[in-house]
């Protein structure tokens, strides 16, 4: 456990070095969220909408999405892992007395947590000083907020467990660019990154709802914005736990299989 | 000059050939671009299965807006995409090598980095355009056809200019200026709706500062017969004036450029 904590600490210190990058990121997230909200506001204004989320819920959803943006990215800054596989330094990784799956899992999770810690507060602050209809509204009760936190942690777990599967495919293909673009597009869309899942039409939604992608950013954001309540929240968290366990299990198996046949490229 | 152009064509051909060496990778990347554009179209499509219109633009009209911006972006990025790796080129000394060659700097940056997988995005945009034109309710005249072509071509040039500006900014910041993505990828993302829906402030900004509305919003009004003034046809061409400051900033940055060493 201590090893993993120190991996985590190194990552945080590492990403604190690039403060100007963080500043640019904060501005980008703020304007991105603002533009999305203005577009939605025009859609709601046009009337005759039968959206299943209120405007204020959509506003909170979008702000929180921007606040936790990096945390739930499936494809994000794991360049070291790609180059480890490509360059052959995977051989060194394999002689270390640690499980490679756990190490990479921890590394990917910290890669996402560290910049989030830097960015989340300023964006949240900006979102909460906006004028009335565009302001982020906090969850109504403490219970809901705690469930949101729990769900966020689980969502991060599902995201990283899914990313691990992507790394494992790199053992076989070596070309990461195409796969990264495809995975980014599909996961963003199916996890509610393009539009929140409740905006999907009914027949599609019933299938999309049970996919692992629905257990990613979709769940914590819906809980935060208050568009799901009561039993639905518990069901959602159960779905997240199920996919987390399933993806980790599949990942461990696939990793074992891949490492049995690994060919180290170069020396 | 003829010799020069041949050199650049050779550059492009060589680049295409080298991208084709990794067929699976090229294919997957193109498919990826296609899917990316497809998901953002579906996002829009799903929204319009629940509402009829945004402000007073119907779904067909919005899809057309989306397709035009997407096409402009994909052409602009295919040509100007080399600028996105510009910070890397400064970092690893490739840019220094370019500077000592007696040829045009910008073309040397761009030619080896033309990304043909962007065709995936373009193909998708053409499909959406073909789908949107019949349902947009536009009565076509040759002036309107010309306007549409100008929208796409000048839009591409504007996106190219934005990528150039982004590269120019990295002369001053060294790190890739993250906030410029709001203008490049952001314009692609938010250009799916006519810019007027974001309110007056945004529309003014996109008319007078970064003239994206000149190729997207005003010509669209002309296509829809809401504005009749024929001067609107050449508004996209006027927006090209924006390229001058972009180029000037780049030149200014280059004149102050200090190599990072190595």
TrEMBL record, chain A:
<feature type="transmembrane region" description="Helical">
    <location>
        <begin position="113"/>
        <end position="130"/>
    </location>
</feature>
<keyword id="KW-0472">Membrane</keyword>
<feature type="transmembrane region" description="Helical">
    <location>
        <begin position="236"/>
        <end position="255"/>
    </location>
</feature>
<feature type="transmembrane region" description="Helical">
    <location>
        <begin position="21"/>
        <end position="40"/>
    </location>
</feature>
<keyword id="KW-1133">Transmembrane helix</keyword>
<feature type="transmembrane region" description="Helical">
    <location>
        <begin position="142"/>
        <end position="169"/>
    </location>
</feature>
<protein>
    <submittedName>
        <fullName>Membrane protein, putative</fullName>
    </submittedName>
</protein>
<keyword id="KW-0812">Transmembrane</keyword>
<feature type="transmembrane region" description="Helical">
    <location>
        <begin position="206"/>
        <end position="224"/>
    </location>
</feature>
<feature type="transmembrane region" description="Helical">
    <location>
        <begin position="60"/>
        <end position="77"/>
    </location>
</feature>
<feature type="transmembrane region" description="Helical">
    <location>
        <begin position="181"/>
        <end position="200"/>
    </location>
</feature>
